[in-house]
Structures are given as structure tokens and as C-alpha cells.
Write a structure and sequence with these properties.
By secondary structure, this protein is an alpha/beta fold. It has ten helices and 13 strands. The strands form four sheets. The protein has a five-stranded mixed β-sheet with strand order 1-7-6-4-5, sandwiched between helices. A four-stranded mixed β-sheet has the order 8-13-12-11, with helices on both faces. A hairpin with a 3-residue loop joins β12 and β13. Bound molecules: oxa(dethia)-CoA. The site of oxa(dethia)-CoA has 20 residues, from α2, α6, α7 and β12. Oxa(dethia)-CoA binds next to α2, α6, α7 and β12.
Amino acid sequence: MTDESPGKLRSVVVGLGSYLPKRIVSNADLEKSLDTTDAWIVQRTGIRQRHIAASDEPTSQLGLNAAKAALADAGLSAADLDLVIVATSTPDYTFPSVATQIQAGLGMTHGAAFDVQAVCSGFVFALATADKFLLSGSHKRALVIGAETFSRLLDWTDRTTCVLFGDGAAAVVLEAQQGEGTAQDRGVLTSHLRSDGRHREKLYVDGGPSTTRTVGHLRMAGREVFRHAVGMVADVVNEAFAATGTTASELDWFVPHQANRRIIDASAEKLGIAPEKIVVTVDMHGNTSAASIPLALAVARDDGRIKRGDLVMIEAMGGGFTWASALIRW
Ligand code: UT7
């Protein structure tokens, strides 16, 4: 690469780390207090267990643990960062942001930190936001974190929602590096973000500071969400293929948002993605909203599946509705 060559900046993943709370709640545990069964939960969702944060363990703590792991993985320190973006819908407080608390926890007093709220699509929205900062040249290294404590939003008497979610956090460090401008470059190759606020009633929390002045509980018309999910996901993934001139057969890994095994499998089938390329963690983590994709990336990277140079498609759909995809060369 010479100074005269066109090239293109790329946001390359140089670190990845995750954190799950210690307490594991199995489906059998839920059977004790709810009119539900392990068989129903596994058959309808694929979920077998979820991690639940301790009462003194807020979202920022989960996120800080994941952030430290990602920085250690990158061989970097907070001094090397200039941007921290946290995707969350379960902040410790209405304000300040979780991102500023993690920034402080890292001992970082420079740069900028803020939260992005796009519910289950939050990590892809945050990654795309960081990517655009890095590509503009204004920032060099970003920490992008998905961190959630959805257990705090659940109505634990509502079997149609409380069996589905879990807590956790994971983070990536993105670094602006010079690429060639082709799909062979390492880094975020493209991202596609969508939203449509008409669907608010299908998936929402029935409380908030400017309405009820309470935190509220998660409410979902599950079947309605399911009905929209597969088509929306397929649309944004196909946009990512079209934008990069790549195809499903060139993908090494499909790392979808982990809400329901049936949604994941139906999306992959619609997109022509081979079953052996799908990374599934919903069985172990449940739906951790904005944390689910980076948690799945961490599992598949740590067990040796995702390797440098692999082509990885991430996608999500969630409350709003919001939906999004990003194609990453690892
Ligand atoms: O991450 C954000 C995006 N969110 C999602 O992607 C979630 C999308 N939706 C889903 O994953 C599924 O719709 C659910 C897993 C929530 C539900 O699965 P479903 O196959 O759509 O079931 P359903 O809602 O149609 O309910 C079927 C039956 C109902 O009983 P009736 O009316 O047929 O008698 C429910 O009351 O299953 C019953 N049911 C349960 N039974 C045992 C609902 N929850 C439970 C439960 N245990 N936990």
C-alpha cells in the first residue's frame, strides 16, 4: 500500500472478550415456580439454561468485566482507546450512560463514551456506529460492548416471556486499519441498519421515566414477533451480500442474534446458509438481547471455529422493531 493508492480504512476486530454471571438457572429450575416444562421451552425455543446476574451485579459490572477481557485479548489498555460505545436496554440508571461508567471503571478519562439503545439489534447498531467513527478518521480504536441484565425487566410470573431471557456481556475492540477496499480486507465490510416504530406494541417495556416513572416489565406478542423476524433478518443479510458482492456459500460463519433456535434455523434456511455454519448459543445463554451476538462470537472464536480471515455474518432483530446485519472479515 502506497500513500497514493486508494485503499480504504477498515474497522478490524483486534480483541474480543465476554463475561457471564455465575448463577445458572435451568429450565428445570423454572418448572418449580412456573406452569412450564423443560420440554416446552426446549422444543419451542432451544433454550436449556440462562445466566442471571447477582442482585449487586449491574449491567455496567458485566460490561466492565467483558471490556477488560477484550482489552487483554487485544493486548491493549484503556489508554489505547478513544471511543466506548455500549449497546444496552438495561442501564444501571436512567443516566449517566453505562458507557461512561465502564469508561471510569477502566480508568479512562479521555475520549468519548455513550450508549446506543436498539434492544436486541443494539450490538449491530453500536458496531456500525463505531465503524463509521473509525472510517471517518476521527477516532482510531473503539470498544464496542453489548451488556444486559434483562432478568431485571422480566415479569417472573409471565411464562410467555420470563423463560426466554438471560444476562451477560461481551465486547470487541475495533481498530482502524488500512485495507484495499475489497471484500478480502479484514474488518467490518458493510453494515445495514433498519427500524420501523409502528411495531412498538409487539415488543416493549411497559414503564419508563417519562411515563410511569417506573422501570416496567417486558411485554411481547411472541408469535407476532416471530412472524416478522425471519423476513426482516433475511432482507438485511441479503443487503449485506449485495453490497459486498458476496454470497451465502462464501460465508464461514453465520452468527445470528440468539432469541429462538427456530428463528435462527428458519432464517438460515431462507438465506441458503448451511446448518454447519450457524453458531448457536441460545441453548446456553437464552436471549441476552444486545449481548447475544458478541457472546456467540466469543464462544465460536474461543473454541477455534472463528479464525482470522473468516467471513462472518452477524444479524439481529428486536424491539422497535429494529433489525440489522453486518459482514465482518475476521
Ligand atoms: O429478541 C427479540 C425478538 N424476540 C423473539 O425473537 C421472540 C419471538 N417469538 C418466539 O420466540 C416465540 O413466539 C415464543 C417462544 C415466544 C413462543 O413460541 P410459539 O411457538 O410462538 O408459541 P405461542 O406463543 O403460540 O404459544 C403456544 C402455547 C400457548 O398456549 P395455547 O394458547 O396454545 O393454549 C401458550 O400459552 O404455548 C403456551 N406457552 C407456554 N407453555 C409452557 C407459552 N409460554 C409457555 C411456557 N411454557 N413457558
